[in-house]
Every structure is written in structure tokens, then in C-alpha cells.
Design goal:
Helices cover 32% and strands 22% of the residues. The protein is of the alpha/beta class. It has an eight-stranded mixed beta sheet with strand order 3-2-1-4-9-6-10-5, sandwiched between helices. Strands 16-15-14-17-18-20-19 form a seven-stranded mixed beta sheet. Strands 8-7-11 form a three-stranded antiparallel beta sheet. Helix 1 links the parallel strand 1 and strand 2. The relative contact order is 0.08. Helix 11 packs antiparallel against helix 15, helix 11 packs parallel to helix 16 and helix 12 packs antiparallel against helix 13.
Length: 503
Amino acid sequence: MGTNINRTLDFALLIPSKGRFKKMIRMLNSVYNAAPDLEWEAQILCDYNEDEIRFLKGKFKNLKVYNECDYFQNRPSWGEMVQFLLENTDAKYFMYCSDDIVFTKNSIKIALTELSKWSGLAAGVAMSYLNVNAYDCRWKEYGIDLTLGDNILVNYGFFNTAIVKKFKGLSNIYRFYCADGDLCLTLLQNGYKIIPCIDACVIHYNIEDQMKIDNLSTAEADIELYKKRWTKFFYDISFVKRINAKSPEPDALLPSGKLMPVQLCESGVPIIQAEQDALYVLYATGLYFPTKRLRLHLGCGEVYLQGYVNIDLPDCKHSVMKPKVDVYGDIRQLRFPANSIDEVRLHHVFEHFNRIEALGLLIRWHRWLKVGGILHLEVPDLKGIAETILAPVPLSIKLAAVRHLTGDQTDNWAYHLDHWFSERIIFTLQKLGFSIRSISSTRWSYAPYLPNLEVIASKDKDIPTQELYIRAVKLLTSFILSENELKNLKCWQQKLKNFLSYK
């Protein structure tokens, strides 16, 4: 592979290994076809004898071999071994690697090409793998495993070295299992993406030797520790799920946005296109970077809020208003990754969506928000409007209340399609996984004394989208007037599923 002292290595393989010298040779040989034209190194922490180490160094260039007994008095955890090797590399990307795998042709190049597209917003890429010795048929085909929160787990794949080192690398609290998932969730929690790459394939022989048996004995304790640490942020999954070329994205109801070139309007304002990954647009245009709080002001209109990313429809969609925005986008089409947003805020916008869209948006926002994230809504208060209409006040005040209820109707979007009052909004938000922090009903202090309802809620824990969908369908049953309308419920149910799938 050669060494270029003027060039940072493209990647490093970090390989803890015990008693698998011949398997190591097979794995390293496969790297050449998997990574043509790339500069790489292998860092190995092992128990090999001097002759075996000498053979490896003679056969493979850019190889660093560390004898485990020279650096550790007691048996280290898997996380400690990988962390030791990580601290000794400055390659751009790294992979914690097994000695009983083989890379397929061009697989490493494909994976790193995909990861590099994200310009630092993605911290890792997961490669698909199969087990030659598989107890479950799902692992006999190439696929990528999911972990807590239906998030991508990197069993085999690459990470951005600088990003991982910024977060202190791998945890040493696990004996063997779950340190990989722990790293993935740490990166996700801090705003980075983990992307799947189905076309980059690894063959895992899954050798059942004594070392494998010993490691399996620690699995249950490691998994319990992992769940205790992370299920307060990412919901549990009842069994390991996999995605492959034939399966849908991990969250079929909320498909991930596509990586597409950023489009600018004539004035230079970026546009979030339908199907596009909105977080990537914000990152690529300097409106967001990982570890920075991300607060969205959706449907901002002419009210520009500092400290928020202000989003509204383009000028051509407004007959009267001239929105002051950071980026143009359609609220119904926005796609953000799970657990990526700190606050979603809308003032006199939520009422523009019908009941299906409103429930669908609440489900999306719950998915986007981090645990502890804030939902801030202000809407016309239906109860207050009713009180105004029934009160002994001038007709002009009553008509103004009707206008407040139904919208200004200057554009197709400018109609109020649904109506909210305190009991309804509290009930709806709580059913869809939000806790109410505050709610207040206020009126203008001057004529026509328009009543408004402001609610601030928080997401306390992750709830699977499928569960939220089921809860939303139950909410829709409240709008059935008789058994004759059960056909309406079926229609609403399908519309909600279509909306969540961006159809």
C-alpha cells in the first residue's frame, strides 16, 4: 500500500486479536481489493508470538503491532483495547475491526465515498455484513443492524477520527458487547448522523472459538448496562432489527431525507426541497453545526427570531406577507433526523393544518426533538372566541373574532382548518408523548381583544413512531359521530399514514 509522508492516511483498521494469526492474514489481504488507491494502516493489539509479528510486519506495510501483555496488566475490555489503538492513529477515518472478516471488492472505498459526501455532518457509516455461521436466517443475508431508538448500529464500518476523539472515544464500562452501540448513540445525541451503506459489504465468519464463548458470557450484563444508560434517551427495541437492500428504512413511517445539492433562490436564500435532508441543508449553508443547539421557528412570516432558524414558504407563495427567513421550506415536507432538534416553535401557524396534518406533524416533531426538547405553540383560543361571540359586545368585535378563528384567507394556505382550546391541546399533546410545562390564555389588551392560547411542552422520552401512530388513530376516534362514520375513521387512518410517509 505504500506510505506518503505528506498525506494523512485515509483510514486505519484498529484490530484487537487473540490467537487468530491466520485469520488476520486473510483479513488484511482482503483490504487491497476493498480499498484501491487509498492509503491505510492497521493497528493490531494481540497475543501473537515474535515470529508471527515479524511475519506480519514483513508482509504488510504501515502495520503497527502491540503485544497486549506489554501494555495491560489485566485483561482489558474490548472498549479499552480499541481506545488504546485509536489514540495511536491520526488517520482521517478508522474502523474497529474483527480478525475473522473479509472485505468484498471496493467495499471500503464505497463506504468512505458515501461518508465523505456528508462533509463532517455524519460521524460514521455502517457497512452491511452477513454471518457465514448464522443461527438466524436474517444474518445469512447482507444487512445492517439497528440499536436503541431504531438507530443505525455500526458493527462494521468507519468513523470520523477527529469527531470521535472530540467525545473521548469508546467507553470502557462494558466488558465486550455494546461499546460500539454506546459510541453510535453518543454521536447521535450530539447531533451527528450515522449513515447506512448497504452496497459496502463485509463477510463475517463468526468463528465459535473459546474467545467467542468467553465473550458471550458477559453479553447479558453488558446489554443491561447499555439499556440502563441509554433507554432514557432512545427507546428500547424488543428484538434486533436489520435493514437490507430489500427492506425499508428503519422508520418506515418517517423515511430519511435524501442527500441532494443545496438550491438557492435568486436572492441567495437556501431552499429545502421536498425529499431533501433538511439538517444537511442547514449544515451546508452554515445555519447549523453539530453540538450547537438547533431551534426551529416554523412559519415565521415577518417575525424573525434571533437564535432560531426561521423557515417559511418562498415569497411567491405569499400575496401580502414578505417573510423574513433564514431558509425557505414547506413545513409539511421538512425531514429532519430523529433526536436532532432542541426546539420547534410556531406562532399562529398550527391552526392552518387540518386534524390529520396536525397529528402527523406532532408525531414528526416528537421524533425530531431530542429528549428534553421543547415544543412551543401559539394558536387562536376557540373557547375565548366563543365567549367573545356570546358576549354583549359590538358586532365589529364579534366579526373580528370570527376572522381570528378562520384566518385572513389571502392565500391558499391562509385558512384556519382546525381549532384549539386548552383541554383539547393538553389532551392531544399528552397522548402523543409531550409533557405540558405551561399553558396560558391571553387576550389583546386593546380592541378587538383577540384571545390566544400559548402552550410550552417537552418531550420526556423517545416513543416509537408506530406507537405514536396508534395513539393518533385513537385520538381520531373522538371525532367519529356515530357508527355510520367508521368508514371515515378508516379514511383518516390511511391519510395519516400517507402523511407520515410524505405521500
